[in-house]
Amino acid sequence: MRILVTGGAGFVGSHVVDRLLAGGHEVVVLDSLVAHGGCPPPWLHPDAEVVRADVRDPAGWRHAARGIDAVCHQAARVGLGVDFGDVRRYVDDNDCGTATGLWVLHDTGFRGRLVLASSMVVYGEGRYRCPRHGDVRPNARTAEDLAARRFEPGCPACGERVAWAPVDEDAPTDPRNVYAATKLHQEHLCAAFGREHGLAVTALRYHNVYGPRMPRNTPYAGVASIFRSAVDRGERPRVFEDGAQTRDFVHVADVARANVAALTAEDPVVGPLNVASGVPRTVLDLARACCSGTGLEPVVVGGGRLGDVRHVVASPARAAERLGFRAVAGLDLDEGLRQR
Predict the structure, then answer these.
(1) How far apart are the first and last CA of the chain?
(2) Nearest one of 117, 121, 83 to 220, comparing CA atoms
(3) What pLDDT shows up at residue 315?
(4) Do the Cβ atoms of 155 and 138 come closer than 8 Å?
(5) H helical segments located in 198-232
(6) What distance lies between CA 26 and its chain's CA centroid?
(7) DSSP secondary-structure letter at 120?
(8) Residue 24: is it exposed, middle or buried by C-beta count within 10 angstroms (0-12/13-18/19+)?
(9) Exposure b/e, 95-111, CB count within 10 A at least 16 = b
(10) Rounded to an integer, what distance in angstroms lies between the CA atom of residue 12 and that of residue 100?
(11) 107: Cβ–Cβ under 8 A, 6 or more apart, which residues?
(12) Strand arrangement, sheet containing 163-165
């Protein structure tokens, strides 16, 4: 197969490229290379054909999409960002970039498979159970909650403390920051494209990805990258709230395997799939793992960001059932974070 990987020079995309080439596929990378100073990074496989263009540029898409059998859409502005002032950049890169690509694919008669890099952030808060009211959706936390250290959500009906449970793909979506809203819109745009053209579209909802080639020293990154960058600078990672926020951390090698499986499976999977390890860990666990062997210790600073959520842990069951995907590479968090 000839497969287009947008954002193929980036963190996740480059690992997908490596695995596709190892499997005997031809790969075209569409990437602006802005994050790499305008040049391909040293880890980008030399056998990949590189089209240097912005995903918002129809000409770049047209060039890269010639003769392709499938699209793996990784390109996006990621992370929570600095503040709401980033809203135009996120919408422009993520929504407009995706819309541009879909328009070109429509215009050129593309009939292949489309795999979208989505995110667990579309869920907002994860799944919660109240002892009295069963499954509930907690209200969004307020600045006053964070200032008063009321970090744990309560039942919206009775106010009692609730317990988190694994969230599956049928959970309602409730994006609680700009990045999350754009990822959900990407899912909607790609799903509409798939329905109109009768094509298979798989949205892979990545949970917190870590591993080699993580971005460094940028607010536009996940928590693992932010902590790792602090440690590399000799600084103690700063942990918001009390560090007990629960997440699922999945190694980038597993994320790449999930993408290749979705692109090449005999029977395509339509709809969203969680890509996760299935092993819950706290944010403080992650910070300590980043510090392992350095002599540093995390510092818990309290406070927090309104765009963050308290607990979101995935159920990996559907990906295992429908795609045969199970995470195996990074279940040892300390070892995975030592890899470069």
Answers:
(1) 30
(2) 83
(3) 95
(4) yes
(5) 223-232
(6) 24
(7) G
(8) exposed
(9) bebbbbbbebbeeeebe
(10) 21
(11) none
(12) 134-136, 127-130, 163-165
Q: Which of 82, 164, 171 is nearest to 122 (CA)?
A: 171
Fill in the DSSP letter of residue 299: E
Residue 248's closest CA among 287, 211, 207, 292?
207
Angle between helix 283-291 and helix 223-232 axes, rounded to 10 deg: 30
Q: Contact, 220 vs 206, CB < 8 A?
A: no
CB atoms within 10 A of CB 213: 20
What per-residue string of b and e applies to 114-145 under the rule 16 or more CB within 10 Å gives b? bbbbbbbbbbbbbbbebeeeeebbbeebeeeb
Contacts with 48 (C-beta within 8 Å, 6 or more apart), sequence order:
5, 8, 17, 21, 27, 28, 29
**Rounded Cα gap, residues 183 and 98, in angstroms:** 10
Q: Looking at the predicted structure, is the pLDDT value of residue 54 above 70? A: yes
pLDDT tier at 335, thresholds 50, 70, 90: confident
* Integer Cα distance of 4 and 74 in angstroms: 10
**Cβ burial, residue 332 (10 Å; 0-12/13-18/19+):** exposed
Q: Global pTM?
A: 0.93
Residue 23 in tokens:
């499997």
Q: How many CB atoms lie within 10 A of CB 235?
A: 12
For the stretch 183-234, pLDDT in tens is: 999 999 999 999 999 999 999 999 999 999 998 887 777 889 999 999 999 9
Paired strand residues for 49: 28
Alpha helices in the chain (DSSP H): 11-22, 58-64, 87-90, 97-107, 143-147, 178-197, 223-232, 252-264, 283-291, 317-323, 333-338
**pLDDT > 70 in the chain, percent:** 98
What is the C-alpha separation between 242 and 151, in angstroms, rounded? Answer: 8
CB 277 within 8 A of CB 37: no
The DSSP-derived string for 83-118 is SGGGHHHHIIIIIIHHHHHHHHHHHTT--SEEEEEE
